[in-house]
Structures are given as C-alpha cells and as structure tokens.
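Below is one such record:
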Amino acid sequence: MPERRRILVTNALPYANGPIHLGHMVEAVQTDIWCRLQRMRGRECYNVCAEDAHGTPIMLRAEREGITPEELIGRLAEEHLEDYRAFSIHFDDYYTTHSPENRKLVEEIYGRLRDRGSIDRRTVRQFYDPERGMFLPDRFIKGTCPRCGAKDQNGDSCDECGSTYAPADLIDPRSIVTGALPVEKESEHLFLRLSDYEDLLEDWVGDGRLQSEVVNKLREWFDDGLRDWDISRDAPYFGFEIPDAPNKYFYVWVDAPIGYMAAFRRFCDQNGVEFGDFWGPDSDAELYHFIGKDILYFHCLFWPAMLHGGGYRTPSSVFVHGFLTVDGAKMSKSRGTFVMARTYLDHLDPEAFRYYIAAKLSNGLADIDLNLEDFVLRVNSDLVGKVVNIASRCAGFLHRQFDGRLAAALDAPELAAAAAAEAEEIAELYEGRDYNRALRRVIALADRANRYIDERRPWEAARDPERAAEVQAVCTTGLELFRQLVVFLKPVVPAIAGRAESFLRTGPLVWEDVHTPLLDREIGPFEPLLTRVRREQVAAMIAASGEDGTG
C-alpha cells in the first residue's frame, strides 16, 4: 500500500500584465515534476494556481488598451494557461485572484487580524504623481537603493541586495508613469503589525522546514527588526476595496497569496474535497509553496503571520529556487535571451526544456543557467542518444521477426532487478528536489542498458534463425530497461512518457511498475519519441526573441 499523504502545492502566481517567459516556466516545471512524482507514488496531491490579477499596472495597461481590467485579465489568463499546457504543466485548478472566493477569504482574514488588534491605522507621507493625479505604488517609483546604492531599483525592494524598504527611503526617486518628480502627500493607511507574530515566525523559521540559505536570509531580517506592513493602497486602484476603509484597497500582496486558497476553495467546491482538511488550523495535510528567491520575504514572513492571525494553518515549507540565466547572464532583451514561452514553442519541443532544466535543478538557491550550446548537446546525448535509442534499437527486431511480441522471460533479469532496486533512492532525490542528481542516476542506468545491447549484439544473432529466441529475449530485455527508464523520467518528460506508453501499450505507468517486467505481449510499432535539437532552431528562437525586443 502506498504511504498515505495528502498534499497541496502551489507555485507563484503569474502577473496578469504580460506573457509567460522561460523564467516563469522554470518554476512551473520544478513544481510540476514534484507533483507528478507524488501522484505516480499514489499520494493525494493537488497543484493549484491563478492569475495575480490586481494592482495599478493592470489598471493602467487596461486603460491604454481601451478595455476593462477584467477583459485584460481574461485574455492573459487564456494565453498563460495555453502556454502552461503546452509545457505539460498540470494544474488541478487555474483561477484568478479577482474572484468572489478570494474576496470573501481576504475580507475574512483581514477581519480576524483586525479583531485581534493586529491592524493599525496611521497617517503616512506617500509619493504622489502630480501630473497623473494619483498616489504611486511602490513598483511605479524607481531610484537608488538606500542600503547598497544600486541605481534604478523599485520602490519597495532592491533586486541587487534583496533589501525591502519604504519608497520614501529611495534616493532620487522618480515616477515611471510620467517621469515626474514625485511629491509627498499625506494619506491614512492600514498596517499589519508583524511584530505581533515575531515569536510564531521565529519558531516557524527555526524548526528545520526551510532551506538553510533561506533561514540565513530571514535571520538578517529578524536581526534588523520586523517592520509593520502597509496593506492598503489609495484609489484609483484595481483590486478589492477594504470594507471599513472607503477608497482604500487591499495591496496586491495581501490578496495574491490568499489566491492560493481561493483557487483551492473552488476546486474543493467542484470536486467534493474538504477545504478545511488542507487549510484548517489543525490540518495534518502537507502544504508547500514553490517560489523564486525574490519573493522570499512575502512568503516566509508576511504570509505565515497572515495565515496564523487569520485562523488558518501555516505552510509545511516554502521551496525557494534561483533565477534563470541564459549563457551565464541575466536574461536580456537586447541579446535576444529574454525568451517568452510562446517564442520557445514556435521553435523547440517543450520536453527538451523540461529535461534540461531538471538536469540543472538542485534544492538550493543557485541560479539555473540555460547554456544554449550545452542544451543542444545534453538533450541530444541523453534523451535521444541514450534513452530513446534503446527503444529504436530493439523494437524493429521484434516486429520483423516476432510480430511485435515480447518474450515470456528476460535474457538478463538481474539488470532489470538492479534498476528496480534504485527506484526508492531516485524517488527520494526527486522528493528532495535534487532533480539533477536523480537524472544522473537515471542516465547511468541508460548507459548500462546500452552497454548490455552492445554486448549482446542482437543484430548479429538476427542473421541466424537458430538464435531467434535469443534475439527476442535480448530485445525484450532492452525494452524492459527502456520502460523502467520511462517510469523514472515520466515526472520530467510526461509527453515523451505518454508516447512511450502508447508504443509499449502499457497504459499509464506508475512508480511501482518498475518492479514488474513487461513480458509476453504485443507492442506497437516504434515511432520517434523525440527528434534531435538542431542548433539552427536555437538560433532562430534567439533571433525571434530579439526582433522586437520582447521575445
């Protein structure tokens, strides 16, 4: 019997203000691989996501396009979901933060925080664009970081040193709406008193649930003192109005993580799952968030405090990853390396990207480099040359001489048994998000399988009618080793696995299937499961990404 685990997983919500790029897709792939592994092992595992649909940027873009924010959100949600699906990303529910479920949960959690005395009202001096006639959200102000001196940083956090601060702390601020010099005006705002939850957060951070690099960063913020969090924004603003504060709206970072809950609430309502079993304060389910290191503060300090104060459970863990670089540098529009998901799909197979990124991913915060030359070499060598090649080497003999029928016994059962014996360790590496180490183990098994075929040389035995049984047994063994590789690779390349399942006529493979050889049955004709990546395709993708500067 599989170990009983109930798991809810999310990745960061894409913002409904532009297309999905490969940086987004790294996180989605990492999350999807982990969830697929859980389902293959018989666990109850759900993955939900949503459009992050509020804020001034969406309001202003909709104005420029002459449409409503709701129309903009709807259009981009369709585009985002189409891209995710093309990369075989599976969501049990994909929703939007601009939903009645989310409004209800936001107001409920806010009301509980207020009733606990954790919400303060105070007058702040806030930047205002005199040309546009509006208060400026943090991200619409740029200037020099007050901590490290980096120029052209956002008004709420620095990309260089990771510091968070108030926009008023910026040096030489300017409005990115009009370029005007912002002026300061007074406005009453609402604040979550984060210091009320310092003991809770200290315990939550310190109990071993987080990566050591994450804990070290959080310790720096504890040492500096936890700051109260401004959770309100002034009209005009696209979002949820705060019930007891007219013309004030919840800051997008209040309702965005609650959007995880809202998406799952809708899934529960439609599928008969008990919401409280996963989000209730006494829940024994597992709750994990996959995020990039740039939004660590929000997910590891504000979010647990908001959940606890709102009467819900805190996350089991937050899994943090680094950024995507291309050829060792930040993605760049000028160099054509800021690649949108749709541009990639116009030129290359998404399974190749999934495999290559998995082969680079560890459980740390190091950046993940898409080295374009290595991408071509590794995908062609590993997936095409070592894995798919096994099936193509063996299937033809079985169809030509045995009507596509597998032998009743393996020629080398010890090889299949040795591969099956590695299943638990490979699964544990996936579980620990050490995908690169897991794939090294899998490719080592592929090398072993290819050596076996080279040594047994079925093409020579096929010339001798008296060795027909040997040919059938050797090729059956080769295909069994291939099938085991498909099981191990299925979380990473599910579309290739699906094509292999059709070819082998196995039905959907699960993790335990590595222990039961496929024998004495017919298989389908072999068709190429993946074609080689060509350098010209990669060059065309980069050229297309640089043509208009947007990818």
